[in-house]
Amino acid sequence: MEITTETIKALRDVTGVSVMQCKKALEEAGGDIEKAKVILRKQSSAIASKKSDRALGAGVAAAYTHAGGSVVAAVVLACETDFVSKNEEFSQLAYGIAMHIAAMNPTFLSRDDVKEEDLKAARAVFAEEAAKIPENVRAKAIEGKVDSYLGERVLLEQPYVKDPGITIRELIDGAVQKFGEKVELVRFERLSVK
């Protein structure tokens, strides 16, 4: 399949990634835009890990108010330079993550934030539920339930409300690829009336 300028432009419009990265991904995907998106998504996590040791020097705070003021979510999204932090797309990313937090009510930013007491409490609840499961698979079942429980409560692992095909971590990794510098969610808060 021939890769045209229009195809490259269409992929760039959807992903926001550089023209050269879009062209290379399309070449690798044989001109298939959907396959190229997957290729770019895989590349974004590799790019993010390469930039993980860089210092954060700028960022933006964003807030989202939902349901007539009954829920408010706020985030601090950090980056390396003012150039990126002042970019409208970067601000929209922070706003979108704040909207996600208002909707999904995560408890932890990452698995590193989960305390041992939280894990013990979850395991105790799931141990009661798994009491009727055969002994030889009970521990694996409990750990599977704990893993699923954490996946629902850890922000970086939740599917993004605007695009359930990607997680918040993948969304941020995509921003690293798009902006060309380290991007990190530093802090979040969610307040609700109820």
TrEMBL record:
Q: Please give the Gene3D superfamilies that the UniProt record associates with this protein.
A: 1.10.286.20, DNA helicase RuvA subunit, C-terminal domain (1.10.8.10), Elongation factor Ts, dimerisation domain (3.30.479.20)
Question: Mainly resides where?
Answer: cytoplasm
Localization in the cell: Cytoplasm
Give UniProt keywords alphabetically: Cytoplasm, Elongation factor, Protein biosynthesis
* InterPro entries linked to this entry: EF-Ts_dimer_sf (IPR036402), Transl_elong_EFTs/EF1B (IPR001816), Transl_elong_EFTs/EF1B_dimer (IPR014039), UBA-like_sf (IPR009060)
Q: Which SUPFAM superfamilies match?
A: Elongation factor Ts (EF-Ts), dimerisation domain, UBA-like
Keyword presence, Nucleus: no
Membrane-spanning residues:
none
Keyword Glycoprotein assigned = no
Question: Which is one Gene Ontology cellular component term of this protein?
Answer: cytoplasm
GO MF assignments: translation elongation factor activity
Q: Where is the Translation elongation factor EFTs/EF1B dimerisation domain?
A: 58-190
Task: Name the segments for region: Involved in Mg(2+) ion dislocation from EF-Tu.
Answer: 81-84
Task: Describe the function of this protein.
Answer: Associates with the EF-Tu.GDP complex and induces the exchange of GDP to GTP. It remains bound to the aminoacyl-tRNA.EF-Tu.GTP complex up to the GTP hydrolysis stage on the ribosome.
Q: Which family is this sequence assigned to?
A: Belongs to the EF-Ts family.
Family matches, as PANTHER family: ELONGATION FACTOR TS, ELONGATION FACTOR TS, MITOCHONDRIAL
Q: What name does the UniProt record give this protein? A: Elongation factor Ts
Q: Which organism is it from?
A: Candidatus Kaiserbacteria bacterium RIFCSPHIGHO2_01_FULL_54_36b
